């Protein structure tokens, strides 16, 4: 079964009644329900939250640092699932300035790769423990601009899955593309969502949508 065939989960007001929307992307071994549980802490009652579900609870089989072709066709299918999720929200009447992205771990990697390939002035992008996908030396000539989109990139500086160098490279690439990058490297922190990240996301969500 393809990722796009899996039914997404949602929380909050329906699109016709919500002021904005967030796409939440779970990590390897996680689920849509898991990542949606973060909404309890974000204090955004006007936000329609939707989380796609990966088939088999994993978006792609190998490390995000593996050669791209090793993770196909799953990576391509995962990116298509995000594209379809975004398009449904656009069709429901949200502008991209009213759309927010949040991903954790494998979901953060996928979120960064998707938004880099489809850069726009989003409401915000929150990538928790992730980086752009591909082996060292992958070309990063993405088209488009983020136009000042707030982008939180948080990760432990000793994360066993996400090398610090890749997080810093991703921050540089995304900043060059016009994102307002807030890079937060946490000394010896665990591979998990941290309270400081939640506080930073809440701060961005407290600002009016563009």
Describe the fold and architecture.
With 210 residues, the chain is of the alpha/beta class. The protein is 28% helix and 19% strand. It contains five helices and seven strands; from the N terminus they run ββαβαβαββαβα. It has helices at 32-36, 74-91, 106-117, 164-176, 195-205; strands at 9-11, 20-25, 47-51, 99-104, 124-128, 150-156, 180-186. It has a seven-stranded mixed sheet with strand order 1-3-2-4-5-6-7, sandwiched between helices. β6, α4 and β7 (180-186) form a beta-alpha-beta unit. α2 packs across α3. The longest helix is centred in the middle third of the chain and has 18 residues, at 74-91. The chain is globular. The protein starts with 8 loop residues before the first strand and ends in a 5-residue tail after the last helix. The model has no long low-confidence stretch (mean pLDDT 96).
Q: Which consecutive residue ranges, at least 5 long each, have pLDDT under 50? A: none
> How many strands appear in the DSSP assignment?
7
Strand content: 15-25%
Mean pLDDT: 96
Number of helices, where a helix is a run of at least 4 consecutive DSSP H or I residues: 5
The string of secondary-structure elements, in order, is: EEHEHEHEEHEH
Class inferred from helices and paired strands:
alpha/beta
Helix-residue proportion = 25-40%
- With strands numbered from the N-terminus, the spatial order across the biggest sheet is 1-3-2-4-5-6-7
* Largest sheet, strands/sense/barrel: 7 strands, mixed
Please state the CA-atom Rg, rounded to the nearest Å: 16 Å
Report the principal-axis shape. Answer: globular
- Rounded to the nearest angstrom, the distance between the terminal CA atoms is 37 Å
